[in-house]
Each structure stands twice: as C-alpha cells, then as structure tokens.
Amino acid sequence: MNMQTRAQQLIDLLQLQPHPEGGWYREVFRSNARVRPEAEERFPRAALTTIYFLLEAHQHSRWHRVTSDEVWVHLEGAPITLWTCDAALRTAPAHVRLGLVDAHGTRPQHIVPAGQWQAARLLATHGHGDFALAACTVAPGFDFADFSMMPADSEEAALMRHHWPDLAGMI
Length: 171
What we know:
The protein is mainly beta. It has one domain (6-170): Jelly Rolls, CATH 2.60.120.10. The chain is 10% helix and 41% strand. The protein has helices at 6-13, 155-163, and strands at 17-18, 24-30, 34-35, 45-46, 49-56, 60-66, 69-77, 80-85, 94-98, 109-112, 117-122, 131-139, 147-149. The chain has a 6-stranded antiparallel sheet, covered by helices on one side. The protein has a 5-stranded antiparallel sheet with strand order 9-8-11-6-13, with no helix packed on it. The chain has a two-stranded antiparallel sheet with strand order 3-4. Strand 1 (17-18) and strand 2 (24-30) form a beta hairpin. The longest helix is centred in the last third of the chain and has 9 residues, at 155-163. It is globular, with a radius of gyration of 16 Å.
C-alpha cells in the first residue's frame, strides 16, 4: 500500500525542487519572446514565465519581492493566505485568500504588482489538506536577478517586527 501524501505525489510527479523563499517549485514555461523592461539596469527578459509552486503545512513563502508583476492561481489543496505590502512598508500588509471561490472572499487568482513585498502560508482550515499547489506567472519573465528576500537584519525587517510582529515569522 502506498502511504505517500498527496503533497509528496505532486512533488514527485511535477519534479519540484526546493525554492529559496520556502516551499517547492519548478519552472514549466519560459517564453522565447524577449522584452526589455523600462528600467535601464534590467537586461532583456523572457516576455513571460510560469512555475508550479507548492507549500506544505509546515512551510511558508518568506517575505520577498519581484520587480515584475506576478499572478498567483490556486490549483489544488488548502487555501493560501497571500500577504502583500508596498515596497517601503508605509501601509499595513493586506491579505487575500486564494482557493475555491466562497462567500468569505476566497478567490482562485490574485495579482501582486511589481515591487510589492509578498509572503504566503496555508490558511488553517479543517478538511482542505496539508498543502497547496499554485501556478505563478511573471511578466516580464522571472529572473533571479529581479528577486530579493527581506533580509532579517534590514530596516524593512525591523519595521515588520515592530508594527506587525505576527507577520515577522515569515521573514
């Protein structure tokens, strides 16, 4: 009898690897079309990239930002709480619930504008499982040169710990 969890099945079937921000991922598409972002310091990028991204119950996506727009689409499993905040942390982080559409505002898709801080974890709900699988699409396409995580010793981290200590655990 196979006792493998659904999360482990997905990790194996989709050939997911550990992501630096937490969770598991694999790039599934990188457009051959190239675009040049307006910022002079950014070199030409693929027009669009997409990945599978999986979080298990004991994991979270650490506070990070990407210099391109990112679309999250919930595919399977527990709902995800996706937190976002402006780049300077001037306003309180806001959150959305990604998952099956319900009367509580849960929706399957959300866009994180370029440059915003973002972090994610599973929404603790009974009966939805211990993982969530999402697809994340970035345009212009993702490049690790455009990705940064919130350093634990940064001014942003200090602001997060001071103003929103319940969210600081995702630094």
